[in-house]
Design brief:
By secondary structure, the protein is mainly α. It has nine helices and no strands. The longest helix is centred in the C-terminal third of the chain and has 23 residues.
Length: about 190
């Protein structure tokens, strides 16, 4: 066994804690949940919770970081420069983002609808900006580019949040097609002189 391999029991326990927490937030709200509530809902001992997490805020922070890191992995492009990206690659990146969010929909929907992280959309925007700016090199300080990227990412995050709140009302394929059309063309226009 490799030393980086995590024991299956630990993974199952953490999954149970996460699922219990997300269920409780939807029924009781974040502030009213105690560690004891989470432990009972997850069918574990309270001390078991403390073996994994210091307290509820630290657990929440780790849960948030895991999901944002997962999105960052979706955004990591296999290109050395954003100029190498074509429309199909852009659509594939969007599809990967939507797939990852859909796989963790309970988390994302809870974050947005329960207002646990009041600035959750700001965190999403920052994650997206970090990746995009890493692909454009020295032009990250160019005023025109900063304004354009901010505008495009704000729209992208707004649409993603709309879909998270009402996934039953929208088809992901339509979102990806429209976003690819709008954002890819705008990005090419914005960056063509860089």
């Amino acid at each position: 066994m490799g030393k980086d391999k995590v024991d299956l029991r630990i993974l199952k326990t953490r999954k149970a804690i996460k699922e219990a927490f997300l269920r409780l937030v939807q029924t009781k709200g974040y502030e009213r949940i105690t560690v004891q509530d989470i432990a009972e809902e997850a069918m574990i001992n309270r001390n078991t919770f403390y073996l994994h997490y210091v307290d509820k805020p630290q657990f929440m922070e780790k849960l948030f970081q895991e999901n944002v890191e997962s999105l960052n992995a979706c955004l990591s492009l296999e290109v050395s420069s954003i100029h190498e990206m074509d429309k199909d690659m852009f659509a594939t990146m969007l599809k990967t983002i939507f797939d990852d969010i859909e796989a963790n929909m309970t988390f994302f929907k809870t974050m947005i609808t329960q207002n646990i992280y009041p600035n959750f959309s700001v965190y999403l925007k920052e994650a997206f900006k970090t990746i995009i700016f890493s692909g454009i090199g020295d032009h990250r300080h160019d005023e025109k580019i900063k304004i354009g990227i901010e505008y495009m990412i704000s729209g992208l995050v707004g649409v993603i949040c709309l879909w998270i709140v009402e996934p039953e009302n929208y088809r992901v394929d339509n979102f990806i097609e429209q976003l690819s059309e709008i954002h890819y063309s705008n990005m090419v226009d914005l960056l063509k002189d860089t």
